[in-house]
Amino acid sequence: MLGVGMAFPIIFAVECLSSHSSAHFIPTTRAIPKHVADYLFIGVILGYAVPTLSIFLIDDSVVKQLAIFLFQFAPILVIGVVKACACLDGTAFQKQTEDHKEPLTKDDDTRDLLGLKNFYKRMFAVCASIHFLIIATMLITNGSLSRFFLPRNIYDTVNSLARGSELFFQADVVVLCLSMAVWGSVAVFDVYRTGLSNVKPLDGIALFLVGSVIVGPGAALHALWAWRETLMAKTSFGRVNEV
């Protein structure tokens, strides 16, 4: 880990210096299959949300262990749910026209964009609702963010599966929130340095971080992703013509 921590900043700096072109940043095959965009929300809910909730809402230890096991395979579950829904709907085997257009053409194929926008809107609503529910719970119970999300007494003996799940969840949430802050900040910087956006990085990052506090990190990241998607789909242009 020390090696990665020392090497990755150098790799990132070199990548930034060598990838200023928007043609380098945006592949010509950006569009995902339409059925994936249409059923992505269902896949995330059934593949991620249901196993996660099962870990904490079910008291039976056997079922809880099964939920923890399934949680490890969440990415595969999401793909499976999306494929299953598409097959039932008959859209998985529809021929998809390949995108051979040059980057940055306004006639680029955006057939997946409506489904992705709907996905981001739904995820924004879900994440923001959870954020406000947590805040309301803290206000009602006189709790605090540290009590909810920061692990305490991590060196104590874990005497129950429920306590182990709590520590597992708290550690994941802390790392995930930090990761989303970095991920979103890098995304704002990337679309600016490649000329796709005219939003100054510091302004965009500040807005993203403030939004993370107001509506929650998950909702803020999905809003950022929806904006970034329109830029990468060439439906909205920033400084492309200037570079």
TrEMBL record:
Keywords: Membrane, Transmembrane, Transmembrane helix. The chain crosses the membrane at residues 39-58, 64-86, 123-141, 167-192, 204-227. This is FAD binding domain-containing protein. The lineage of its organism: Eukaryota, Fungi, Dikarya, Ascomycota, Pezizomycotina.
